[in-house]
């Protein structure tokens, strides 16, 4: 199958493209910078915010992965909504059989953050023109280079003692990026997954503070956590930007979402794409190993 990957050079996309090729698919890597793209697949120019670029990028494709967002903008809700509507129309015009979208976990009955509301809105808008959409909804994706994972790792490594807001007690269900990729490949062309929103997660439900403690334990570090309930999201995001590489705007969007419990409510994906996901410690060890190898190769 000829498949377009929007976001081919991103955290998930650069891992998905080789997995798709290994599964026998022809990969079209959509990027804003095709001349400098060095990953797997045929590089083609495309930008979800440049609507006129989408028809040419999608030409000849049978399916597409939508792995893009605008979290680093304070206007991300509008930008992502407009991009999703444009992609939906272009997908229909190109005759696509399926769009696969990686969104976010979260209970619709909850008071979802702007970030998670936007993810749900994008999911719905991609369906506007009738192309079947498969949405995989994930919480924290653990892997080298992932924003939420890097925030977790850097907090542990930079702060042996930290004052934290109440969101550290929120439950989440982290999943290894390798397992996300296996699910993404597994739902492609899968009739059971067509037109569905499917929750994906690892084997454990953990509070954010427990995730950090487990990382500290694996790295042989001591970590003291002092919760401060009155630490506001705004102050938290500035604090994050000081002690991690996460920018203030992205940090604010992520922190707002950390008040929402993000756990798997329906595990149907385990039957549709059957395999045993790795546990949290294994995912952390792989992520740390990837970082160490990258550091050695660049030194």
Extract low-pLDDT stretches: none
- The portion of residues forming beta strands comes to 15-25%
Structural class: alpha/beta
Number of beta strands? 13
Mean of all residue-level pLDDT scores = 88
The largest sheet has its strands arranged as: 3-2-1-4-5-6-11
Do you know the CATH architecture of the domain at 2-141 and 176-201 and 262-277? 3-Layer(aba) Sandwich
Shape: globular
What's the name of the CATH homologous superfamily of the domain at 2-141 and 176-201 and 262-277? NAD(P)-binding Rossmann-like Domain
Q: How many H/I helical runs?
A: 11
Task: Note the run of SSEs as H and E.
Answer: EHEEHEHEHEEHEEEHEEHEHHHH
Helix content: 40-55%
What is the CATH topology of the domain at 2-141 and 176-201 and 262-277? Rossmann fold
Main beta sheet: 7 strands, parallel
Gyration radius from CA atoms, angstroms: 19 Å
User: What would CATH call the class of the domain at 2-141 and 176-201 and 262-277?
Assistant: Alpha Beta
Distance between the termini: 39 Å
Q: How would you portray this structure in words?
A:
41% of the residues lie in helices and 17% in strands. The protein is α/β, with parallel strands linked by helices and 299 residues long. The protein has a domain at 2-141 and 176-201 and 262-277: Rossmann fold, CATH 3.40.50. The protein has a seven-stranded parallel β-sheet with strand order 3-2-1-4-5-6-11, sandwiched between helices. A two-stranded parallel ribbon has the order 7-10. It has a two-stranded parallel ribbon with strand order 8-13. β4 (63-66), α3 and β5 (98-104) form a beta-alpha-beta unit. α3 (76-93) runs parallel beside α4, α5 (147-158) packs across α7 (208-218) and α8 (233-243) packs across α9. The N and C termini lie far apart (39 Å).
